[in-house]
Amino acid sequence: MAENGKKLVEQITSMDEDFAKWYTDIVKKADLIDYSSVKGCMIIRPYGYAIWENIQKILDERFKATGVENVYMPMFIPESLLTKEKEHVEGFAPEVAWVTMGGSERLTERLCVRPTSETLFCEHYANIVKSYRDLPKVYNQWCSVVRWEKTTRPFLRSREFLWQEGHTMHRTAEEAEERTVQMLNLYGDFFEGDLAMPVLRGQKTDKEKFAGARATYTVEALMHDGKALQGGTSHNFGNGFAEAFGIRFLDSDNTLKYPHQTSWGVSTRIIGGIIMTHGDDSGLVLPPAVAPIQVVIIPIQQQKEGVLDEAYRIADTLKAAGVRVKVDDSDQSPGWKFSEYEMKGVPLRLELGPRDLANRTCVVVRRDNREKSFVAIDDVVEAVQSGMKALRDALYEKALKNREDRTYTADTLEELTEIAANKSGYIRAMWCGDLACELKLKETADVTSRCMPFGAEAIGDRCVCCGREAHKLVYWGKAY
Amino acid sequence: MAENGKKLVEQITSMDEDFAKWYTDIVKKADLIDYSSVKGCMIIRPYGYAIWENIQKILDERFKATGVENVYMPMFIPESLLTKEKEHVEGFAPEVAWVTMGGSERLTERLCVRPTSETLFCEHYANIVKSYRDLPKVYNQWCSVVRWEKTTRPFLRSREFLWQEGHTMHRTAEEAEERTVQMLNLYGDFFEGDLAMPVLRGQKTDKEKFAGARATYTVEALMHDGKALQGGTSHNFGNGFAEAFGIRFLDSDNTLKYPHQTSWGVSTRIIGGIIMTHGDDSGLVLPPAVAPIQVVIIPIQQQKEGVLDEAYRIADTLKAAGVRVKVDDSDQSPGWKFSEYEMKGVPLRLELGPRDLANRTCVVVRRDNREKSFVAIDDVVEAVQSGMKALRDALYEKALKNREDRTYTADTLEELTEIAANKSGYIRAMWCGDLACELKLKETADVTSRCMPFGAEAIGDRCVCCGREAHKLVYWGKAY
After folding, report:
1. What is the ipTM, given to two decimal places?
2. Over 50: is that where the pLDDT of A6 sits?
3. Helix H or strand E segment including A380
4. Is residue A330 over pLDDT 90?
5. pLDDT of residue B156
6. pLDDT for residue A88
7. In the structure, what pLDDT confidence band is assigned to residue A10 with cuts at 50, 70 and 90?
8. pTM (2 decimals)?
């Protein structure tokens, strides 16, 4: 705090110098989060939460367009319910928070705070799914979940986080598989189109799949530093949970059958991904689709007659066109404001001073490359819309180039280990499908399998680890 | 379940016979909620949750128009933080759920699941409020909270419920008081305008106010059975919490001061209020502003050529006009559908058969009084809009008349006790302000003070209980 009580725009650590510290600086200095005395949890501040609200709004509309209905399940799961499906409880029990007291009384059965809600949805579906006419059920909830992590980082890994979890039940295995892939592609299109983050779409290995799932599909993004981030996942459970929970329906052929189940989710982790994909040494860079402020108008010599009036008029025009716009008419200097909104990643800055007024023009500056355009005030809506589109496209291209530059290929264990030791990025290599090889790569090169991309072409026929026959192309890497 | 797997529309208990059972029948049979193995918690099903989403959308927009910003605080509160403000912890500690284990480890300090978040907001404000330039802070969050109630009822009282909680900090006492009243009136206007529920706006007695507040304002609604429901509350905390949490700001006169604080909230309880205000023996009756389906189109002889096509065309026209509409083209009979959507409280039903087609008309039926209108298909948008408005107005008038019919006046303790024993509703009576009298009315007549309405005129100058001088007009009653 400066002595007059105004915040100064402070320098942040350079990303090349210390990427982790750069990240932490941004989440704090762009006012995205604050810490509290609740260890491992974070406060999402208005600017950070507004990004999440924009993400929610876009996804929720698209979910509903595919027939999704929102519900709300209890946040607690009785221990006996959590343990009904064996693999599932093994995956989650070590990292749940347990409620053992209600008021001053000890509970007869302890309750965990949901780490995910498959078990609750299954119990409910067992109540309401009786006939093929009751299918499909395509439910989703927006809520918070808790996983008792040891090491936490804002947005990327915290003990409590916000997410959506879709849970569906289907009459046939084919329909469940279709829904699993449909939701994965919905996520993929959102990441690429709206967040300007190129993603690999593919399948997880058995080791990396969700506890209890038959198959887990993923969208994987590569961060600026070459580490991978799992952006969203979609799981096909087959009828394993349905069997464990006794969910059966009478089909039209008059026989009782188990329905087929999926679940899929994305979380506030996305915000961490945006930061690490697009941010730079001046701060955050936000894709326009989710930016709380898409255009900030900064008046120059705002005390001069007409400047503020015109700024407000332009803001009204942009608002009417559906643009999220803010006029900063505070008494800070224009230079301070430039830095502040660069830190906050506002896609476009619009400068307007007395001289511009006389010419009926203004200056539009792009956040990503600081490119300036001189724009007639009458054309401001079009200039802003095309500026946002150009910025989104440039962000995408830059992130794609980063991924291409950081994607390596290995044929042997030695090559892979060598690359993993000296480079940061994806390593493409063939894999025989054996868990032992996957574990060995982790041990030898400290990489995990990130994804087996859909429709990827083989780059050989021998496992990078054991040399036996291999048909699976895997992207290996280090991940957040 | 019927043998062919279709649900039949079942009878519900009559409201005059058993109001409590009628209520429970509706929440189940209108598909609003389901129970689960989590005792005291409920599953909010798609139809119930869609009502909540409509409530959220309307309120969230109005909040933001007054400068509110949304945030998200952790769901856990360390015990030491909860206990910082004395009255607050006394009010809440007996009814919180405690997390004592994370994974397999015992926590060094137990965490409660938030029953409300004043303490977390205060801790955060202590971090970010330093100067008068940082004020006001006008934050809100939409989340779930937990109170370990012994007796629970869907929507009205459950161990977990959904709500919004606004928490604000202000430079002056006057500004805090203004915000407290502003939010109460925002709630009042929402209840009356959108939910068609007349409310009393006024102040709570000290006994009934929020733990730690200086003053609590309330909107109180009267249910069909004459019991009161607290619809929403708005609290002025003065600077008590600020002192307890050491929140101080440097004012422009260069002195350190404590800011003044408010909080305000409404919850899913509202849905219980809607049911008990407007419902009837055929089921739910929803005010159009929050109805998930505002108009259901029921084709008659839908197999006849052109009927379904015209039904879809009308639906498209209504959708384009912003109406939430559904065509039920299932193979159930029209009679079954009539009952089903009456149970679900859909405001308007539109019937369309082959004869209507020939005349280019359709029939619009109001849910509340079953009044039929024959409407030219070309005028359907206007007919639907005016039909919804008329229904909202009629619901309001009916509820207002119920309140007027059930509002009594008492001058003496004997009168009050007599009314309380034989009638169900509000009893207006003067009160001296003494807690002893309030407790005695509870003991003698089993009523609590509901509200001291703003600007109410005195109806005497003696306390109904002790006969001493009295200036406060109180509405007494039994409450949910």
Report:
1. 0.95
2. no
3. helix A380-405
4. yes
5. 97
6. 81
7. low
8. 0.96
What are residue B297's DSSP bridge partners?
Answer: B327, B350
Q: In 3-state terms, what secondary structure has residue B266?
A: strand
Distance, in angstroms, between A254 CA and closest chain B CA? 10
| Of A343, A324, A306, the residue nearest A11 (C-alpha) | A343
Is domain B19-278 in CATH 3.90.190.20, yes or no?
no
Q: Which of B204, B93, B116, B226 is nearest to B164 (CA)?
A: B116
What are the pLDDT digits (tens) for A193-249? 999 999 999 999 999 999 889 999 999 999 999 999 999 999 999 999 999 999 999
* Among chain A residues, CA nearest to B39: A78
Distance between CA B289 and CA B389 in Å, rounded? 10
Asked if pLDDT for residue A24 goes beyond 90, the answer is yes
Q: Does B41 touch chain A (CB under 8 A)?
A: yes
Instruction: Among B34, B131, B143, select the one facing A128 at the smallest CB separation.
Output: B34
Residue type, B230: Q
* CATH 1.20.1050.10 for the A293-390 domain, yes or no: no
- In whole angstroms, give the CA distance from residue A186 to residue A190: 6
Cα dist from A256 to A168, A175, B8, whole Å: 19, 18, 21
**Among the partner residues B70, B96, B113, nearest to A53 by beta-carbon distance:** B70
Q: What burial class does residue A423 get, using C-beta atoms within 10 Å of its C-beta: 0-12 exposed, 13-18 middle, 19+ buried?
A: middle
Instruction: Return d(Cα B158, Cα B149) in angstroms, integer.
Output: 7
Secondary structure (DSSP) of B324-350:
-EEE--SSS-HHHHHHHHHHTT-SEEE
* A92-to-A113, A139, A146, A156, A203 alpha-carbon distances in Å: 11, 22, 10, 18, 21
Per-residue pLDDT reduced to its tens digit, B362-396: 999 999 999 999 999 999 999 999 999 999 999 99
Exposed, middle or buried, B83 (CB in 10 Å: 0-12/13-18/19+)?
middle
Determine contact: A41 vs chain B, CB below 8 A: yes
Phi then psi for residue A257, to 5 deg, are -135, 155
User: What does the pLDDT read at residue B85?
Assistant: 83
Task: Return d(Cα A98, Cα A110) in angstroms, integer.
Answer: 6
The residue extents of the domains of chain A are 51-278, 293-390, 407-477
Give the pLDDT score at A251. 97
What type of residue is A339? S
CATH architecture classification, A51-278: 2-Layer Sandwich (3.30)
Is A53 in the B-facing interface, judged by CB distances under 8 Å? yes
Residue A134 to chain B, least CA–CA distance (Å) = 8
CB proximity B146 to A under 8 Å: yes
Residues of B (70-99) whose Cβ lies below 8 Å from A: 70-78, 80-81, 93-99
Taking 70 as the threshold, does the pLDDT of residue A119 lie above it?
yes
Buried b / exposed e over B140-161, threshold 16 CB at 10 Å, is: bbbbbbbbbbeebbbbbbbbbb
**Helix and strand tally (H, E) in chain B?**
14, 23
Residues of chain B with pLDDT under 50: 1-7
pLDDT of residue B9: 55
Architecture of domain B293-396: 3-Layer(aba) Sandwich (3.40)
| Contact list, A96 vs chain B (CB under 8 Å) | 103
CA distances from A6 to A1, A300, B461 (A): 6, 19, 54
Could you tell me if B304 lies within 8 Å of chain A, comparing CB atoms?
Answer: no
- Name the fold adopted by B407-477: Translation Initiation Factor IF3 (3.30.110)
DSSP secondary structure, A277-295, as one string: HH-BTTB----GGG-S-SE
β-pair partners for B167: B139, B263
Q: SS3 of A139, please?
A: strand
Percentage of residues in chain A with pLDDT exceeding 70? 98
